[in-house]
Design goal:
This protein has 438 residues and is of the alpha/beta class. Helices cover 38% and strands 24% of the residues.
């Protein structure tokens, strides 16, 4: 049977890994796919570097549109990234009747609805396992493996850069700025790390997982996004003393009580006994809670040349297997049939229900704690744990640490405003969300 011909757009870190793994494991992949899969054409602006990587195995061009225009190409793999030219090329490939594989989470989180609609109209597939958590097959798990379940929530460490930074801050007691510079020196963080440290990259991925988990359109613009730039080593240390670790989590949760979906990315206290709390360095992990299966955990490398290539090639194999299948009987892009997607709204952050960690810098005098707890009681916010540090010798101020039970975020914000207005509260209150994930 004639081999499937693949056109590769971009042969950087992931592209070169894809070429290498496909070549190295070609016989095993052929056995699994039922026919050969060959990269026969590569487009990259750096033509000379691309030729050094592929040698005589594929035609190399500078113009990506030449790949799309080639009638022999069955599948186009987009590894350029970004929203601009990548979107145009993906839509052009679909219009030309090509199947598409992409690792571009930003593109799909923002423009996925348009792209999937175009693919359905043309009867082609868009596969994106590599777009979330690198080599971890979380897309396939949500789209196929957990099909029998009503998914209740998904929570994941889905950005290796921020997890590395938080791990180093905890292990070494260093503040964010110091560890970020070290992460950049070691290559874990980009020269411009904004998308990572501000939570945007994780929010792109969480948006895709929310669509797959709950059968809703991709809605990145409705996600609540916070990064780790304001985290201090002090709060990481206090969390540890209370039995928690702080992770940047992407969370999507079904809320049947208010008929909505929580979609949020932010630093989160997680009990240190949870497996996900012990995911260190640049590794990724995703927890999924299903009504039938219970809690499942998916762990592995979230980035890197060959781990991400593993996911790209898995998509190539899936498309090869289904290449001639009736489009109406393929696995849907977002797990649910397109006409079965729900309009369940994404909830505003004020409606989110979660527990909180609070750190208040207060005057060390009588009545301070009573005033704080009274405000929480009047807001019907119950306290789970409280820690009051002794003031250092010669100081007349100290830290009060409070863990609360679950409450509505809007009510907590109102209570925080009242506490902040107390004359005995001497600095901005630190507020972090807490999830038990059980």
């Amino acid at each position: 049977m004639k081999a499937i011909q693949v056109g590769l757009l971009g042969i950087g870190t992931v592209g070169s890994g894809t070429f290498a793994v496909l070549k190295r494991n070609q016989e095993e992949i052929r056995r699994r796919a039922g026919r050969g899969i060959e990269i026969t054409m590569v487009a990259d602006l750096n033509v000379e570097r691309a030729r050094e990587i592929v040698g005589d195995a594929a035609q190399v061009v500078a113009d990506a549109r030449a790949v799309i225009a080639n009638p022999a190409i069955d599948i186009v793999v987009e590894l350029i990234g970004g929203y601009g030219i990548a979107k145009a090329l993906v839509l052009e490939a679909i219009a030309a009747g090509k199947h598409v594989v992409t690792a571009n989470k930003a593109l799909l989180a923002v423009h996925g609805t348009e792209i999937f609609a175009a693919a359905r109209e043309k009867g082609v597939m868009v596969a994106f396992e590599a777009a979330v958590a690198g080599g971890i097959p979380i897309i396939k798990a949500l789209r196929e493996g957990l099909t029998a379940n009503q998914v209740q929530w998904v929570a994941g460490i889905i950005n290796g850069t921020t997890n590395f930074i938080l791990s180093e801050m905890r292990d070494k007691g260093l503040d964010f700025d110091v560890v970020l510079k070290e992460a950049q020196r070691l290559g874990y963080a980009e020269a411009d790390p904004t998308f990572d440290i501000e939570g945007v990259d994780a929010a792109h991925k969480a948006t895709l997982m929310s669509a797959l988990a709950f059968g809703i359109p991709v809605q990145f613009d409705r996600a609540h996004v916070e990064g780790i730039t304001k985290l201090s080593a002090t709060d990481i240390r206090y969390a540890e003393q209370l039995g928690y670790r702080i992770k940047l989590l992407g969370i999507a949760r079904r809320r049947d009580d208010v008929q909505g979906i929580e979609l949020r990315v932010h630093p989160t206290l997680v009990p240190s006994k949870r497996l996900i709390a012990n995911v260190e360095g640049a590794m990724n992990a995703v927890m999924v809670q299903g009504d039938a299966v219970g809690t499942t955990l998916y762990y592995g490398k979230g980035a890197g040349s060959e781990p991400t290539a593993s996911a790209v090639i898995a998509d190539l194999v899936d498309i090869t297997r289904l290449h001639t299948a009736d489009p109406d009987h393929r696995v849907p892009h977002l797990a649910f049939q397109p006409d079965e997607l729900h309009a369940t709204p994404i909830l505003p952050i004020e409606a989110v229900r979660t527990a909180f960690y609070l750190r208040l810098r207060v005057a060390d005098q009588k009545g301070v704690l009573a005033a704080i707890t009274r405000i929480l009681a009047e807001a019907d916010i119950s306290i789970d744990a409280l820690l009051q540090r002794e003031s250092a010798e010669g100081e007349n101020q100290t830290d009060v640490i409070i863990l609360t039970h679950d409450t509505v975020e809007g009510e907590m914000r109102a209570a925080l405003a009242r506490m902040q207005a107390l004359p005995t509260v001497l600095a901005p209150i630190v507020s972090l969300r807490k999830e038990e994930l059980a």
